[in-house]
Amino acid sequence: MNRTLFPRRLALMSLSLVASATLLSACAPLLMGGAAATTVMVATDRRSSGAQLDDQGIELRAASNIRDALGSRVRVSVTSFNRRALITGEAASERDKALVGEAVRQTPNVQAVYNEVGIANSPSLKERTEDSLLTGKVKAGLVAAKDIPANSIKVVTERGTVYLMGMLSQSEAERATSVARTTSGVQR
To answer: Which of 39, 45, 48 is nearest to 165 (CA)?
Structure first.
């Protein structure tokens, strides 16, 4: 009985592999396009590839440190650029805000911490959506301004306040700040 099942299994597995390959071949352009876009982003970023990797690691480890220290008592995000960590979001108390800052400071490779956590309740879905839209508007403004290396700037928005992080010349930083300030909806 085993001898008759083996050819059927082999045929079924072969058919499955062919079907999978056919279905996945449609994804190849998306994967290659995504890889090309990522390569362009890495190539135009002014940080070294080591700093870019460190920043990704900082964001992941800092989030884990915060979760370990405070659980779900806070709603915060950590954004790292060139080993400098920006913390945004909300905490219920000054003590929790300080604990968040300490958790991020203890993260390996962090050179500076900017703790912009507000003492407030978590924002509504509407407020978070408005912040996301505002981030998009500022990014679009930076891309439209031909004299600003938009790929070298991270934009973070929290409660209508826009934070710009990047490695820029003085004139580029002033221009980027001007674009952000003049974007409708930016409070600060």
So the answer is: 45
∠ Cα 155 161 48 (to 5°)? 25
User: Which pLDDT score is estimated for 100?
Assistant: 98
Mode of pairing for the β-strands spanning 118-119 and 161-166: unpaired
CB atoms closer than 10 angstroms to residue 81: 23
- Cβ distance 142 to 170 under 8 Å? no
180 burial type by CB count under 10 A (0-12 exposed, 13-18 middle, 19+ buried): buried
Cα 114 from Cα 105, distance rounded (Å) = 10
Percent of the chain with pLDDT over 90: 69
Element containing residue 53 per DSSP (H, E): helix 49-70
Characterise 63 by phi-psi region: left (phi > 0), alpha (psi -120 to 50), beta (else). alpha
Better pLDDT: 187 or 30: 187
Out of 6-10, 35-39, 173-177, which region has the weakest mean confidence (pLDDT)?
A: 35-39
Q: Say what the pLDDT of residue 37 is.
A: 41
Q: Which two tokens stand for residue 68?
A: 């370990």
Per-residue confidence at 23, pLDDT binned at 50, 70, 90? low
Which of 96, 94, 95, 109 is closest to 62 using CA atoms?
Answer: 109
